[in-house]
Amino acid sequence: MPIAPQQVVTLHYTLHDANGTLLDDSRVRDTPLEYLHGHHNIVAGLERALEGQPQGAILSVTLMPAEAYGVRDEALVQQVARTAFPVEGLAPGMRFQTQGDAGPEIVTVLEVGDAHVTIDTNHPLAGETLSYRLEVLSIREATRAELAKGHPLPPDVDHTQVEDRKVP
């Protein structure tokens, strides 16, 4: 069955930046990626490239920033009061997850001063051209519970227990 919306896809991948530097490899962690196709669980360009691919497919995909984690926005670099980070040893390069207007976001510390901290709320891979090598391991229909939640559920979850609400 080819990859289509409402299916759970399991795949292995490697991710490289434009210089060929390895950024991530699911095989090294022995943890394949599992996602619900058509529910924005992965970047849009990758989802488009996987649409219609069969189980066993191996493909290479290069994504420009707009198709991946977006173009860098310098307006997302800002100064905040040092008191916003009650962390000892705060240093450039540290990352924190915080609640933003559109949900969780990663904040990267760029500079630390006595009164202010310069932070960047761009995604760490924003502005990067990314190259993926993908291997589709399996494709299956999503359960009602997965469709209701919008993402795959662990095998130990009772997939028959879903909230009483309309499933897309």
Output the helix-strand order: EEHEHEEEEEEH
Question: If helices are DSSP runs of H or I spanning 4 or more residues, what is the number of helices?
Answer: 3
Task: Report the CATH topology name of the largest domain.
Answer: Chitinase A, domain 3
Unreliable runs, pLDDT <50, ≥5 residues?
162-168
Task: For the record, give the distance between the C-alpha atoms at the N and C termini, rounded to a whole number.
Answer: 20 Å
Number of strands: 9
Task: Work out the radius of gyration.
Answer: 19 Å
Q: Tell me, what's the shape?
A: globular
Q: Kindly give the count of domains.
A: 2
Percentage beta strand? 35-45%
Question: Tell me about the biggest sheet?
Answer: 5 strands, antiparallel
> What is the CATH architecture assignment of the largest domain?
Roll
Task: Kindly report the average pLDDT value.
Answer: 91
| Alpha-beta classification | mainly beta
Supply the CATH class of the largest domain. Answer: Alpha Beta
Helix content: 10-25%
Keywords: Chaperone, Cytoplasm, Isomerase, Rotamase
GO cellular component, one term: cytoplasm
Organism: Litchfieldella anticariensis (strain DSM 16096 / CECT 5854 / CIP 108499 / LMG 22089 / FP35) (Halomonas anticariensis)
EC number: 5.2.1.8
